[in-house]
TrEMBL record:
Name of the protein in question: Malic enzyme
Record's cofactor remark: Divalent metal cations. Prefers magnesium or manganese.
Keywords: Metal-binding, NAD, Oxidoreductase
NAD recorded as keyword: yes
Catalytic machinery residues: Y99, K168
Cofactor requirement: Mg(2+); Mn(2+)
GO molecular function: malate dehydrogenase (decarboxylating) (NAD+) activity; metal ion binding; NAD binding
Pfam families from the UniProt entry: malic (PF00390), Malic_M (PF03949)
GO annotation terms (biological process): malate metabolic process
Length: 567
């Protein structure tokens, strides 16, 4: 791989403390002389491979996952190339340390672990200076990606007030190939309703209850308009927004800027890919499925919308007909007409009470229609769990589904693994190996009746969202369309091992995530060009080579000192 050349204006301590340009002991003799480093570094020049070995040895001395997370964060603050190169070499092992599930613990302890600020903090009391603060933080930078969060719905731990969304942009670089200098994390601090944080004297955020309503909307809108004004070709990623805001904000801005919500669209896209692989095994169509969604929050609704839109796009049925393929169940039972206070974003999927009169008459005194009753009546082909209700898919429910379905498709997606709706091993056993399975967290293989291992696909957003984002960025797409997301999902599904061996995993191995996401990105950019939403003048046939040119790789460049160079 050829070594890129950079003209750099930094010298001495300035370059050694700049994570983008620091090489540590890998600076060459000529570079040490040119940048005033000869006396600031030990004599021996190390290769990147040697540095990675040293760093990995140091990492192993950490005895806890949160300790390893802190060590890696410190490395990222010092040397981007070394940080990403180490992660690339140990991808499967270290993703759970820098991302789900350990990152949630790091965010929960953010104020107590705080050492150095990263990205941009936009705080409600300072809203009048937002543009000045935004421009000060971004001046001189060419930014392709903003990852923003108000930290109201951190996976598995809820409202954390201030929790920088840097882990998401790390995955964009590590797996998607996005230049880290072009990615920017933004915290929108609008307060917190977490009493433990409000009462914590070390809490670093604004110690005030969350603002709501017009004040919240105006604050978020001011930020979005700054992104649109100053970086019109960037992708704006919404992360960990609460259920009352996530879908609403996505709908508000999706037609005016390239915006993306991973909790909604990323989860929906990777689930669509997994389901497309499963129906490739069952030789059926999306619109043939009867789908139960257990858990009607942002993730469950995002999956429902994504699958519904794919039916409309690929199978050419109406939205109304596609809506009738879904039964949504939450903690109050089946979502139906007579339930009070049904959220506006769920109303398309509300089932008629008249369909359930007989069951309702036989049901509990509170009138709930529970999951087992829905399974028995609907005879689903697909059951997806996003409820965080551990064990919610009981043996009776799984067996009832399998009794009426040759190859039941069961995706218990809740994270972390302790909250999964059913252990995939149990689902495999209870269906006598007939189930097609995927989970949201990694699980060991299950045993088939013939003694062979059945690899449980990990329905992990990181298999697709970096590629979706990279495809939108390199094509300078003005918006992120549903058809671009579907194109990426179809490309991922086409790479399923199960399409060549029905008893193999429904998704590719996570260790191949970088090459998988590259294919997703190519498909997204091709679709953007085809439908006219791209801002580049490429031909579709050029996309693959153009995408290769845009990939950022963790290798050291050759530096030449230039007072007018990069800083």
């Amino acid at each position: 791989m050829s070594q890129p050349q950079f003209r750099v204006a930094l010298r001495g301590e300035a370059i050694l403390t700049h994570p983008r340009f620091n090489k540590g002991t890998a600076f060459t003799t000529a570079e040490r002389q040119a940048f005033g480093l000869t006396g600031k570094l030990p004599y021996r020049i190390n290769s990147l491979d040697e540095q990675c070995q040293r760093a990995y040895d140091q990492l192993q001395s950490q005895t806890t996952d949160i300790g390893k997370n802190s060590f890696l964060q410190s490395m990222k603050d010092q040397n981007w190339v070394l940080f990403y190169s180490l992660l690339t070499r140990h991808l499967r092992e270290l993703i759970p340390i820098i991302y789900t599930p350990t990152e949630a613990e790091a965010i929960a302890n953010y104020s107590h672990l705080f050492r150095r600020s990263e990205g941009l903090y936009l705080t409600f009391p300072n809203r009048d200076s937002m543009e000045e603060d935004f421009l000060e933080a971004t001046k001189g930078n060419s930014i392709d990606l903003f990852v923003s969060s108000d930290a109201e719905a951190i996976l598995g731990i809820g409202d954390q007030g201030v929790g920088i969304s840097a882990a998401k942009s790390v995955i964009y670089t590590l797996i998607g190939g996005i230049d880290p200098s072009k990615a920017f994390a933004v915290t929108l601090d609008v307060g917190t309703n977490n009493e433990s944080l409000l009462n914590d004297p070390l809490y670093v955020g604004w110690p005030h209850e969350r603002i709501r309503g017009k004040e919240y909307d105006d604050f978020v809108d001011k930020f979005v308009q700054l992104v649109r004004k100053h970086f019109p070709h960037s992708l704006l990623h919404f992360e960990d927004y609460g259920v009352t805001n996530a879908q609403r904000l996505l709908q508000r801005y999706r037609d005016t800027h390239a915006v993306f919500n991973d909790d909604i669209q990323g989860t929906g896209a990777v689930t669509l890919s997994t389901l497309m692989a499963a129906i490739g095994v069952t030789k059926s169509k999306l619109c043939d499925q009867r789908i139960i969604i257990y858990g009607a929050g942002s993730a469950g609704l995002g999956i429902t919308k994504q699958l519904r839109d794919a039916m409309v796009s690929l199978d050419k049925i109406s939205v109304e007909e596609a809506n009738q393929k879904f039964w949504l169940v939450d903690k109050h039972g089946l979502i139906r007409e007579s339930l009070p206070d049904v959220r506006e974003d769920l109303k398309e999927y509300v089932r008629k009470d008249s369909e359930w009169e007989e069951i309702q008459a036989q049901g509990d005194s509170n009138g709930e229609i529970k999951l087992l009753e829905v399974v028995k009546k609907v005879k689903p082909t697909v059951m997806i769990g996003t409820s965080t209700h551990a064990g919610g898919f009981t043996r009776e429910i799984i067996e009832a589904m399998a009794a009426k379905c040759d190859r039941p498709i069961i995706f218990p997606l809740s994270n972390p693994s302790k909250l999964v709706e059913v252990d995939p091993k149990d689902a495999n056993d209870w269906t006598k190996g007939k189930a097609l399975l995927a989970t949201g967290s990694p699980f060991p293989p299950a045993k088939m009746p013939d003694g062979k291992d059945y690899i449980i696909a990990e329905c992990n957003n990181a298999l697709i969202y970096p590629g979706l984002g990279f495809g939108a960025m390199i094509s300078h797409s003005r918006i992120m369309t549903d058809t671009m997301i579907i194109a990426g999902a179809r490309r991922l599904a086409s790479l399923s091992p199960a399409l060549t061996n029905p008893d193999d995993a429904l998704l590719p191995d996570f260790g191949d995530a970088p090459s998988i996401n590259f294919e997703v990105a190519v498909a997204v950019a091709e679709q953007a060009i085809e439908e006219g939403s791209a801002g580049v003048d490429w031909m579709k046939e050029e996309v693959r080579e153009k995408a290769k040119e845009k990939l950022w790789r963790p290798i050291y460049g050759e530096y030449v000192f230039d007072e007018d160079g990069e800083k």
